[in-house]
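URGENT: need a sanity check before tomorrow's submission.

F., can you look over the GIY-YIG domain-containing protein record below? I want to be sure the sequence and structure line up before it goes out.
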Amino acid sequence: MTHFTYILLCADKTLYVGCTNNLEKRLKEHNELKGGAHYTKIRRPVILKHYERFRSLAKARAREAEIKRWTRKQKLAFLHKNP
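Structure tokens as predicted:
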């Protein structure tokens, strides 16, 4: 199964990092459903800025944790280099 690590740009210009096995469904949840992440629920709409594919959940989660440790400045520089 394919897993994804992704970065969203929220309406308030903050960044959200997550992982999922169904990127399309998860984006819909972030933007439309009551059951989405609380952080994005109050910062809609969100825009997908970057995603990466992984063959295992463990690798996707490890990448998510790595990106979450970055500063905002590092995340923005990464997004600028990897649109």
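My own read: The chain has a mean pLDDT of 95. The helical segments are 23-32, 38-41, 57-69, 72-81. If you see anything odd, call me.
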